């Protein structure tokens, strides 16, 4: 389970960073979302992976660390709010600037290669 | 009186929420007056808190009465109360500035301003790294709204960069917190400082990685070298009152660096002590350099002030990197001065721009300034203060920082860069001043008068360096005591993690 979990976090983060470095706002927003998924999974794992522990303090002797769960919950809420904001902002930028490039104008090199293809 | 610590958070939070309700949203006058009262109350609270902290006691407020390593604590020591007071003075002046004509550009400006203050105050007061993250997000989401206030192409473009960068920064912040929690099992700053001292050597590299990732995030907020390029565009694009308030935002990053890397990774942290120094020193020096180049290249006054902020951030970081008590004290004095003066200069730039008509604050010959004498003298005072010429506080701050560099290696890097950047600022500001005031291409169409309230706000902020240099003695004593308290890691651990006396055994 640990290896699978680690690979998941790694792939999500790598994909998120890759998309974050793109030039258009939509991939960037998706990249931010993937990155925040990776972060949330990673935070969750800091309480150690365990498949039989109770989530809340119960009568059992073995229970999961509740703090990472609280952290993840907060991080998810904040992450959603921020994603919603950046989506609206990207739409606003598309309207205000007339294109969806993060710099507000499409570089000439990109325009040329698009014309050629 | 113990609950006083929470008041700088509760006042802007509840006040901001109340301002969203119809009785206040309906009338702009009522909203403004309410905001002013609120801001004055916050300032009064910070004054009381500073008085309390000056007795040397670290005020700890356990939220919900859950004791430190398990619950959330707010810590009001000398450093955080000092910065609270700085924030409230700056916020009061920039709030006063919105009483002028520019406020009409949209609604909900005042509540956003209050939420921004909530975030900043929270970041200063929290004793817990995860709550630092939460308050960072609060101040960021308010700042996104404030930055974009009024709309327009340049603001949208600057805002998009700012928002995306900060979201990426938040992700790195969370990764760092995850690493620290996973290895040390706590996120309370004092508890982290204690746990780092007893760290298993096998886990040192992980903690080091987590700590340095925090440096990336705080460096982004503070506009440290490779992460500084968003600042001039964002600050030059926002409305003047917002830009003035944002002068404190880079200092939030510097505060976090100061807190994390002198308390958690401080003198007592064994192999991990001073891990930030080797990075902060060169990056801080290079930030001064890049800021100075930006100052020379600035085409308009507000971008010039924004680049001066980068120079001051670089200077602060380089001095903090020395990680000694006297260096920290000098940096704190300069921090007070540079925040207030750059806020004042942003406001002044707007006053000047409005009287020059179409040319605005671009540094080209244009129509003369209506109130040339008044604004010219203010510009002169502001310029002297920000360059660091005697007799104003910038000079005292720079002398203190230069004398904090003790070894030859430190001196040979810090002195030329700080003095060189002052020279660059001197040249650029005198060139800017003569273009603005002495070289008009035409007479002003009508004699425009600056709005008296806006003028008052600007004068208030610009007179602060004067006060700081008149009261240089007490203020330097205060910052010295602050630095001493900050470097006393054991003292902080002792007062935040008091032995839990009232835990009841539950069957």
From TrEMBL, chain A:
Pfam families: Oxidored_q2. It comes from the Bacteria. It is found in: Cell membrane. InterPro entries: CPA3_antiporter_subunitC, NUOK/Mnh_C1-like. One of its GO terms (cellular component) is plasma membrane. Its main location: membrane. Keywords: Cell membrane, Membrane, Transmembrane, Transmembrane helix. The keyword Repeat does not apply. It is a multi-pass membrane protein. The chain crosses the membrane at residues 6-21, 28-47, 67-91. Belongs to the CPA3 antiporters (TC 2.A.63) subunit C family. NCBIfam families: PRK09094.1. This is Na+/H+ antiporter subunit C.
UniProtKB/TrEMBL annotation, chain B:
InterPro entries: CPA3_Na-H_Antiporter_D, NADH_UbQ_OxRdtase, ND/Mrp_TM. Residues 127-421 form the NADH:quinone oxidoreductase/Mrp antiporter transmembrane domain. It holds the Pfam family Proton_antipo_M. The chain crosses the membrane at residues 6-22, 34-52, 58-76, 83-100, 129-150, 162-189, 209-231, 243-266, 278-297, 304-322, 334-353, 374-393, 413-432, 453-472. Keywords: Cell membrane, Membrane, Transmembrane, Transmembrane helix. It is found in: Cell membrane; Membrane. The keyword Membrane applies. One of its GO terms (cellular component) is plasma membrane. It is a multi-pass membrane protein. GO terms for molecular function: NADH dehydrogenase (ubiquinone) activity. One of its GO terms (biological process) is ATP synthesis coupled electron transport. Belongs to the CPA3 antiporters (TC 2.A.63) subunit D family. This is Monovalent cation/H+ antiporter subunit D. It comes from Marinobacterium aestuarii. The lineage of its organism: Bacteria, Pseudomonadati, Pseudomonadota, Gammaproteobacteria, Oceanospirillales.
